[in-house]
Every structure is written in structure tokens, then in C-alpha cells.
């Protein structure tokens, strides 16, 4: 099963990642601010401000982006079109799927969706050390005109 890596500001994403790990029978999730994944991972992060990817998440992805396989982002519904937008930005930049967009700490249905996605993924062989070198983002996100 993929490693889970989270970046959390308020604790909502950390708790969600811990609950997903428990329900999926996965190892304890890693902190994007403190840990480094040894292989492919699912990123769980939050959306900052009006739809931005947090700086700590960007710094983590600059170092470990090639190992990214999917993204989950939290947000708040009151941000409208910018709800959990970090997921869309990261998915576009790294060519990975948006696994879920969750409101604040998520729900049981959100956890079930992420667990099902994790269980459906084939097991990948560990990557070689050279595969964790930083690479340029694949698809820069452009919001276009409004």
C-alpha cells in the first residue's frame, strides 16, 4: 500500500490521514514537514488562503514530487470555486489524480473513498534513489481569464 504523507495546519488533515491509515490497515502517516517517504505516496494536504497550495507542501513536493501518486486536499465549502483547490493545482502540476476533496476534517464517506482508492492501487516496487531527485513541474497550472 502507498505511504500516506500529510501536511496539516490546524490538525484536520493530520487526523484525517491517521483515520484513513487505521481504516486501511496502512502504516502511520508521515508528516510532510518532518519525514521523507521511502517510496510512492498519497499526499493529503490543505488549501491555504483563496485556493493556494501551502508553502510547506510545495517545498515537500519540490523534494519528493516524482514519488507522488495521488492527492487529497481539504478546504472549506465557503470558499466556493476555490474549495480544496490545492488538489486541482497539484494534480495538474504533477499529472496525478485528485483522490478526494474534503470539507475541513472530512467525513466517513470521504475516508471510505480514499481507503477504496488505496486498496485498488497495485503495489509498486520501491523507487531507486535517483527517482527522488527534484524535477521540474510537468504541467504548470494556469487559471486563465475569469
From TrEMBL:
Keywords per UniProt: Plasmid
InterPro entries xref list: Flavoprotein-like_sf (IPR029039), RNR_NrdI (IPR004465)
Protein origin, superkingdom: Bacteria
Gene Ontology molecular functions: FMN binding
Start-end of Low complexity biased regions: 125-135
Region (Disordered): 125-146
Short name of one Pfam family: Flavodoxin_NdrI
PANTHER family: PROTEIN NRDI
UniProt protein name: Class Ib ribonucleoside-diphosphate reductase assembly flavoprotein NrdI
Organism: Deinococcus ficus
Amino acid at each position: 500500500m502507498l505511504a500516506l504523507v500529510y501536511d496539516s495546519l490546524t490538525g484536520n488533515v493530520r487526523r484525517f490521514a491517521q483515520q484513513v491509515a487505521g481504516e486501511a490497515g496502512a502504516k502511520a502517516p508521515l508528516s510532510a514537514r518532518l519525514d521523507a517517504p521511502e517510496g510512492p505516496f498519497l499526499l493529503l494536504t490543505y488549501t491555504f488562503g483563496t485556493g493556494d497550495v501551502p508553502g510547506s507542501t510545495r517545498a515537500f513536493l519540490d523534494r519528493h514530487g516524482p514519488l507522488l501518486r495521488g492527492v487529497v486536499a481539504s478546504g472549506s465549502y465557503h470558499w466556493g470555486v476555490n474549495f480544496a483547490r490545492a488538489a486541482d493545482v497539484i494534480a495538474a502540476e504533477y499529472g496525478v489524480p485528485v483522490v478526494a476533496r474534503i470539507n475541513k476534517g472530512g467525513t466517513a464517506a470521504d475516508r471510505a473513498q480514499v481507503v477504496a482508492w488505496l486498496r485498488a492501487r497495485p503495489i509498486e516496487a520501491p523507487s531507486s534513489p535517483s527517482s527522488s531527485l527534484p524535477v521540474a513541474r510537468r504541467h504548470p497550472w494556469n487559471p486563465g481569464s475569469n
